[in-house]
Amino acid sequence: MEQNVMWAFFSLPPSIIKHSINVAKLCQKIAQHFDIDDKLLFTCGLFHDIGKLYIDEQILNKRSCLTKEEFEIMKQHTVYGYELLKESNVNELVCLSALYHHERLNGTGYWKKKKEELPIVVQIVAVVDVFEASTSYRPYRFPKSKKAALRILKDPELFNLV
Ligand SMILES: [Fe+2]
């Protein structure tokens, strides 16, 4: 792995580093159930949000809802992450996890991709990302219980892994 990927990762805000490490560890555990290389899934989880390095911290840390313009800027973290990883010759699935981790099976994600277009590895990162984010503390809300988070993930329209 090129050094610039690790440099970029450790330049992220600490809260995103923490979230990414948690996502990576959960992905690694889940890998065993899907017969997928756990190191690969760990790496997909670790770098899924790396593109946030290029998003203004004012937008990243905003406590209220994002405006339409801010949301469009925020969406770009997936593209920035994909491009950074692609340029660094990282495994294609790691690049695609950065690009498509906000997709939902019914096509309501950032880039309106459908299930058929999303590799299983990317689907796992998407599920784990939501689970980790909703069960963790944020300055503007309390964490959901694991039970409540699993309820969201059981919506077959959005996810189908649980
Ligand atoms: Fe993200």
From TrEMBL:
<dbReference type="GO" id="GO:0016787">
    <property type="term" value="F:hydrolase activity"/>
</dbReference>
<dbReference type="InterPro" id="IPR006674">
    <property type="entry name" value="HD_domain"/>
</dbReference>
<dbReference type="Pfam" id="PF01966">
    <property type="entry name" value="HD"/>
</dbReference>
<feature type="domain" description="HD-GYP">
    <location>
        <begin position="1"/>
        <end position="162"/>
    </location>
</feature>
<keyword id="KW-0378">Hydrolase</keyword>
<dbReference type="InterPro" id="IPR006675">
    <property type="entry name" value="HDIG_dom"/>
</dbReference>
<protein>
    <submittedName>
        <fullName>Metal dependent phosphohydrolase</fullName>
    </submittedName>
</protein>
<dbReference type="InterPro" id="IPR003607">
    <property type="entry name" value="HD/PDEase_dom"/>
</dbReference>
<dbReference type="InterPro" id="IPR037522">
    <property type="entry name" value="HD_GYP_dom"/>
</dbReference>
